[in-house]
Amino acid sequence: MRNPMRQWTIRALADRRRLRDGALAALVPVAACSVALAGLTAWAGAGRAGTPARIRVTEGRVLLPSVRGAETAAFLDIANHGGSADSLIRVTSRDVPGGITLARHRMNAGNAGYRATIDSVGIPAGGRLAMSPEGVDLTVSAPAGKTWTSGDLVPLTLEFRRSGRVDILAVVVRPGSVSFQ
Q: Looking at the whole model, is its pTM more than 0.85?
């Protein structure tokens, strides 16, 4: 004959174990949601949530071409102080009728460097793009009818996917007179 008190104790322990296991199973998603909510609250409280990209362009430099009418390179420092990423999609200039293209430095199997044309380059939220000879730069077709000298200013219009147009003046500098960090 079975002891009814013993059966009740076993059922009570099993019910407690199921209750404890159910509470622990519910605790994991509740904790994950709480951590996510705290992170989003901090992000929104810092003023970064949903803010548009805020682009600032500095250090515009165009290398002095070694031959009149030849291609040269230009470098910009672009900072995004906003809360959304943006992309540089085009650069134009009324003083460069031959055009300006975005390019990225590449190496081939024989360790020879070359420039590969790219359609756009991203600038992350709160990030920076520092153009350099080893990374992204601009390939500029120097005007055939005009000779640039060191110190000349070249107007550039940068077009960003979300921020629109930004006009800057880039200074013509001698190659080797600038450092890239």
A: no
